[in-house]
Amino acid sequence: MAPALRLAFDQNFPTSLIQRIAEFLPEAIALRQLGWNGLITNNYKMLFEPHEIATVVATKSVIVAVQGLGHDPLRAAGALLLELPGIESRVLPDRSSVFLLRYERRPARDGWEFVTEAARRRDEDPAALWRQHRPSRAELDTLVL
C-alpha cells in the first residue's frame, strides 16, 4: 500500500497580489521542511518558472496543478476529485511528481453519432437499428410519472 500523501492547498490570489508578496510566500522547500509532500494549486504557471520548478525537483515534491479553470473553485475541485483516487500509487518514487490537470469544455455531439457507433459495433445498418429500437409515438406521448 502506498504511503499517505500530505498535500497543502494554496490560496488562489490575484496575480498582481502574488507578484507583490511572492518573496513572503512559502515555497516547496518550506512545505517539505514542515512535513508536507507537496501542493495542490490553481497556479499551474509556477511549473514554468525556473526557480519554482527547480525547487520542486530538488525537494522531490508532489504538485497537483489545475490548468485552465481560472478562478472557478467548483470546477477546479471537480477536476481534483476526479484525479485524487489512487494518486499516491502514481507518485514517482524518489523523484518529483507533477500532475497537470486540464479540463476543456466539450461541444455537444448529436446522439445519432452514438446510434451509428452502436450499429457499427454490432455490424448492423444504423437505420435498421434505429427502426428496431426507437420508441413509438405512443411511448413518447404516454406520461410516465
Question: Total number of helical segments?
Answer: 8
Which strand order do you get reading across the main beta sheet? 1-2-3-4
Strand element count:
4
Give the N-terminus to C-terminus distance in angstroms.
Answer: 48 Å
Taking all Cα atoms into account, the compactness measure Rg is 24 Å
Number of domains: 2
- Strand pairing plus helix content: what structural class? alpha/beta
Query: What is the average of the pLDDT values?
Result: 84
Share of helix, binned: 40-55%
Could you name the ranges where pLDDT drops below 50 across 5 or more consecutive residues?
Answer: 13-18, 20-25
Shape: elongated
Oligomeric form of this entry?
Answer: single chain
- Report the β-strand fraction as a percent range: 5-15%
Order of helices and strands: EHHEHEHHEHHH
Main sheet: strands, sense, barrel = 4 strands, parallel
Provide a descriptive summary of the structure in words.
By secondary structure, this protein is α/β, with parallel strands linked by helices. It has 2 domains: 96 residues, no CATH class; 30 residues, no CATH class. 42% of the residues lie in helices and 13% in strands. The protein has 8 helices and 4 strands. The chain has a 4-stranded parallel sheet. Strand 2, helix 3 and strand 3 form a beta-alpha-beta unit. Helix 6 crosses helix 7. It is elongated, with a radius of gyration of 24 Å. 13% of the residues are buried.
Throw out a few tags for this protein.
single chain, 145 residues, alpha/beta, 8 helices, 4 strands, elongated
